[in-house]
Amino acid sequence: MVTGNDNEEVSIIAHLLEVEKEASQIIAAANIKGDKKIAEAKMAADSEFKSLYAEKSEELQKDFENKKQAVFSSHEKIISEYKASVESKNQNKEAFNNLLEKTLFE
User: Fold this and answer.
1) For a FRET experiment, which of 19, 85, 97, 100 has its CA 20 to 30 Å from that of 37?
2) Would you give per-residue pLDDT tens digits along the chain (106 residues)?
3) Angle (nearest 5°) at CA 14 between 8 and 19
4) CA-CA distance, 63 to 91, in Å (whole number)?
5) The Cα angle at residue 62 between residues 61 and 68, in degrees rounded to 5
6) 11 by DSSP, 3-state: which?
7) Cα 80 to Cα 54, 77, 83, 92, distances in angstroms
8) Sign of CA dihedral 75, 81, 83, 85
């Protein structure tokens, strides 16, 4: 026999099940919203990283090119000075050729 208390208990249980269902839906919606925010934050962080990486890479490339040019210029100056010093020395080509002839062919 079903009494008023039994009906009330069934009604309370049904209400609690409905509340649990609503809570589950709220949690699922919150998870979806949270996942979306995480994905957006990750995309923003990736975009910022790529931008900063490209900026730093360009800066380092320019610095490398400047230093490379400075080394090249210094090298060219040293070579030019050396060539000039060698060319300014008294060269006796005839004696050198005679020495080669004597050394290699005798």
Assistant:
1) 19
2) 556 678 889 899 999 999 999 999 999 999 999 999 999 999 999 999 999 999 999 999 999 999 999 999 999 999 999 999 988 888 888 988 999 888 988 7
3) 125
4) 43
5) 90
6) helix
7) 38, 5, 5, 22
8) negative
